[in-house]
Each structure stands twice: as C-alpha cells, then as structure tokens.
Amino acid sequence: MATRAPWVALLVAVTFFMENLDATVIATALPQMARDFSVTAIELNVGISAYLLAVALFIPLSGWLADRLGARRVFSGAIILFTLASVMCGFSQSLDFFTVSRVLQGIGGALMVPVGRLVVLRITEKQHLVRMIAFITWPGLIAPVLGPPLGGLMVSYGHWQWIFWLNIPLGIAALLATFWLIPRGGGSDRRPFDLRGFLFTALACAALISGLECLGRGEFPQGAALLVAGLICGWLAFRHSRQHPTPMLSTRSFAIASFQSTLVGGSLFRAAINAIPFLLPLLFQVSFGLSAASAGMLVLWVFAGNLAMKPFTTAVMKRWGFRQVLIVNGLLSIAAIVVCALLTPALAWPWLALILFIGGMSRSMQFTCYNSLGFADIPKAQMSEASTLFSMFFQLSMSIGIAFAALALRTSMSLHGHQQPENSDFAWAFVAVAGLALLAWLDALRLKPGVGEQVLQK
Asked: What sequence ranges are listed for the domain Major facilitator superfamily (MFS) profile (predicted)?
C-alpha cells in the first residue's frame, strides 16, 4: 500500500482542489446567476455562506465517521455527495434550491478532504511525509487564486452552470480512483457518538465563520456577537474534550509543539495569503481601472509563482530544516505583502508581474512548510483527530483572511472619508494583512532547532 501513497495523495489533492475551487469560483458569476434567479447579487451571497458554513459544521464529524465506518466508505460517499450536489447546483432554477444544493455540496466537501488526508497520513512512512504533504497542499494555494478568473472565463464564454458541472468528470474520476487505490477495511473504532462535543464544536466553527463574514460586510454588532458566541462555544468544546472519556474531537495533539505551531502560526499565515487573492483583483479593477479579465490575468502571476516554487520546496526544507525556513522565508513573505501596498497604476507591468511572481513563490514555500511540519511529530494513533483539527483551523483561516482584509479596507475608507476604496485604502489593507503574517513569524520563533527533523531524513 505504501507504493500507492503518491497516487492516493494526488487523489486527495484533486478532491482538495474541487472543494477549495467551489468556495471561490462563483464570486465572478454572481451577477449572471442573480439575473437567472431573479434576485440581487447580494442575496446570492447566501450561496457562498451556505457552502462555507456546511463545511465548518461537518468537518468535526469527519474523523469519527472515518474511524467508525472506514475511511474508504466515507471518502467515496463524500465524493458521490459532492458530485451529485454539483449537478443539483447546475440545474438550480431558484435561490432556495441552489442554497440547499450548496449545503449538500459543503457537507460532501467537509468529509472528503479530512478523511482523504487521513488515509495518506496512515499509509505514509515518516521519511516520505513531506513529499506526500506537498502533493496535497498545492490546491490550497492554487484554487483561491485560480477560482475568480476561471469563473470569469466560464461566465464570459459559456454559462455559470459549467462552474459546477466541471466537478462531474473530476468526481467520477476521483471515485473510480478511490475504489482502485484505497482498500476496504477500517471502521473498527466503536466509540459512541459524542453529541455534546459535536454540537459545541460545530456551533463554534459556524458562529466564528458567520461572525467574521459579518465583520467583513461592515455589520459590526452582529459580527461581534457571533464571534463572542463562537469563542464561548470553542471554550466549552475544549473543556468538554478534556473531560469526556471518548470525545468527538480530542485536543491532545495540541500539546505537541510542532502541531500547535501549525494550528496557530500556520493559520495566521494562511489567513494572510488567503486575503491576497481577495485584495489584488479589487485593487486592479477599482484603483487601476483594469477590466475583470485583465485583473484576473495579473493575479495568475501569483499562481505561476506558486507552481514555480513547488518542485523545490522539499529540497529546501531538507537542506535547512523547518524552523530556519519558516523564519527566513517568513520575512520574505511579509516583505512581499508589504510591497503590494506600494503598487500604483504607474508601475510597469513586467515589474508588477515580477512582484506577484516572487510573492507567490515565498507563499508556496511557507504554506508547504507549515503543512508538512504539522504532522511530523503526530503518532499514528492520533492522526485522525489531528487531521480533523487541522481541517477546522484551515477552514477558519480562509474566512479570517478575507474578513480581516475587508474590515481593514472598510476601516481605512471610513477614516479617510472615502465612498469608494482608493489606492491608499488598499495600501493600509495590505499592511494590516502583513501584520497577520508577522504574528505568524513571531510564533515560528518559538520552535526549537531540529523540530520535525525525523520527516526530513534524506
């Protein structure tokens, strides 16, 4: 089975790409969809929110289901649900039916990636873990950048339904590969369902994501109330997990320094890089006056930097180790974000493309390093709970990044009395996002030299 590990990792990467792409790809299609549904584009935001909330609510269930029913059964079932829900989205004729379809799609996505990652972690030896994690993590970098321009192209030259029907061949291929690559078995864990732990955890994730979205829209009282409720539920979930003999989601992995750094510092960094694909298209269209297509093509230079760096990430980590890479490359990533605050319409396009390309390279390196470090010291028996925790924090970091960037942009506009965001407002937003990356860098300083070195054996 170990010889199939690269293929299983590639399979999980495809499902990860599907899940992340569908979180962002409809953003540019909202106006056309709104006309077809006879609603406003703002009302259609429920399609994005419903998807993200469904993912957040059901991620805590993924580890328990995989242990209870077997990873192959849950993974294949999640792919089927995600694909069928995508078909339903494409055939939607009303906002209500579309919202239900997106919820089902979110449930499938919530179970696909954590369970798929768990399979990879269980069959991969420690010395090969970095290479396998590299396979899995690239969609997390590519999908948020590729989603908006891909959605724009489909809408411009086709119809919005193709955004969802694209998942049909991918889902069928992934399902066939699952039956070939992942053996039957598992499901021997008969621990009872922890309803209270599930409710606390699910409510915490849902309230935090909803609160962050409200803050991003400028709805401060509702956002603050939801964040407080989310933090309270999170504290209750943590306390419950420490007291319950068989909790839905154990938090014992949080005591491992390398995993803790990935959850805390890694989430802050992922929030920062998820804010960039949100801010850049707005900057290019609103401040630079570019068309949506031109803005999308420029953002693809970030995508090009991600891809260009990917073949070298494993060698760099093996040469210098996790801690040194996170510290040195972290400073480069912060600098790349700060430079975005200095961009102006007068800057020549080759220089602009180079800045975005270098930023994409540094983010790719840091992203892969955090994800590889996260599971370096996790015992095999704790992989299930660690994978679920990781997925929950990953989902939260996506919402944090976009909401934080939107909040920083709105705050600058309010302070300067701007009705529409101007170049100076975007500059302050990029500086604020760089502050998130700086907090992640400070967290990396706490790591001990040689951390995670067992997975970097040559």
From this structure: 8-452
CA dihedral of 87, 36, 292, 278, whole degrees rounded to 10: -60
For residue 96 the two structure tokens come to 């209500």
**pLDDT score of 141:** 61
Tokens 């001990």 belong to residue: 448
Tally Cβ neighbours within 10 Å of residue 254: 16
Give burial (CB, 10 Å; 0-12/13-18/19+) of 174.
Answer: buried
Report the percent of the chain where pLDDT is more than 90: 18
Judge whether 207 and 233 are in contact, CB under 8 Å: yes
**pLDDT, position 194:** 86
CA nearest to 280, candidates 439, 421, 154: 421
- Is the pLDDT at 79 greater than 80? The verdict is yes
CA distance linking residue 118 with residue 59, whole number of Å: 13
Question: What phi, psi does 189 have (nearest 5°)?
Answer: -80, 115
Enter the DSSP assignment of 312. G
- In angstroms, the CA 205 to CA 397 distance is 11
pLDDT at 185: 65
Instruction: Judge contact between 23 and 120, C-beta under 8 A.
Output: no
Look at the block and give the residue holding tokens 């040469």: 319
Taking each helix axis from N to C terminus, what angle separates 313-320 and 129-157, rounded to the nearest 10 degrees?
Answer: 150
- In this structure, what token pair is assigned to residue 373? 């470090």
Identify the three-state secondary structure at position 261.
Answer: helix
Local structure of 107: helix, strand or coil: helix
Residue 303 DSSP code: H
**DSSP string for residues in 185-237:** ------PPP-HHHHHHHHHHHHHHHHHHHHHHTT-HHHHHHHHHHHHHHHHHH
